[in-house]
Amino acid sequence: LMFIFGLYAILLTARSIGAVQHPPESLFALNWGQVFYAVTFFVASYLWSSVFSLMVSQRLQNDLNELATMDSLTRVINRRGMTRLLEAEFARKTRTNSDFSILLIDVDRFKLINDEHGHHTGDHVLHALAQKLSSSLRAQDFVARWGGEEFVALLPATSSKDALEIAERLRTEVEKESFLSENKRPITISIGIGNSTLCDDMDKLYKAADAALYKAKRTRNAVAWND
Hints:
The protein is of the alpha+beta class. The longest helix has 38 residues, at 32-69. The protein is 59% helix and 13% strand. It is built from seven helices and five strands, in the order αααβααββαβαβ.
């Protein structure tokens, strides 16, 4: 756009200088200079319109992509976005034979939060928790809202042992966080770990993490993984 605006300025300047030095005999006089000016002005206008339309369409496309892969409440990746990341991670595992882990995270007694404080407060807790998980994970990790009060964290190139350490750190940090100032009971999470070593597709990996989460939910505020 700056290039086109510069072209406009050059054309108008040249037009003004030419009119001063060589005044036209008539307002409607036609010569090659005027034809060149008119054609160039038309080309510049066409380029300006095309570039501007391209910028607007690109911005709209970016917004649509964000809406398609971003959870509007928590402002982290949604289930669709995480599914794409998991598919890409399985493809990378096939190429490099590098395993990875996922954390299936569930908020303990979340229904009580909604019942005691209202759904607006429950939404606040989910948003704050999502941001806490995002800031507590490593730079290469991803967190997504999987559904309801359930989140999934993707840990690339991470063994079950390392995933266990990360999960325990997340659990401890969340327990220490004051999500509700008026609530003396801390918000806690339970985490199930799944690793791609014994799971060759996304469905098996999720079931492994879900089974581990079921074990962790027996006591709540716990981390579990399947040997």
